[in-house]
Amino acid sequence: MVQNIIKLSERENRIVNVVKAKSGMKNKNQALGFIIQTYAKEHLPEMMAPIEKPGRPSEKQISSVEELRKEIRE
Fold first, then answer.
1. Residue 38 lies in a domain
2. Which of 1, 15, 16, 40 is most buried per CB count within 10 Å?
3. How many Cβ atoms are within 10 Å of 31's Cβ, its own excluded?
4. Has residue 3 been placed in a domain?
5. How confident is the model over 54-67, as a mean pLDDT?
6. What is the pLDDT of residue 36?
7. Which domain covers residue 31, as residue numbers?
8. How many structural domains is the chain composed of?
9. pLDDT band of 56, cuts 50, 70, 90
C-alpha cells in the first residue's frame, strides 16, 4: 500500500464526504479509492486492461533460477 498526503479544496472534501456517506464507507480512503477506480473504468479503459488482466508476469510463481531465466528470455 502506498500512502500519500493530498490537499483537497473545500468542495473536493465535501464530494469525498458525500461519496463516503452515500456508499456507507468507513473512511475517506475507501471513498477516494472508489472515486479513482470509477474514473479509471469510465475514462481509461484501454489503460486499465493490462493492469486488471489476470496472470501478469509479476504474479507468476517462479520456483527455480532456470524458470526465472526462461521467463526473462521470453
1. yes
2. 16
3. 20
4. no
5. 67
6. 92
7. 10-73
8. 1
9. low
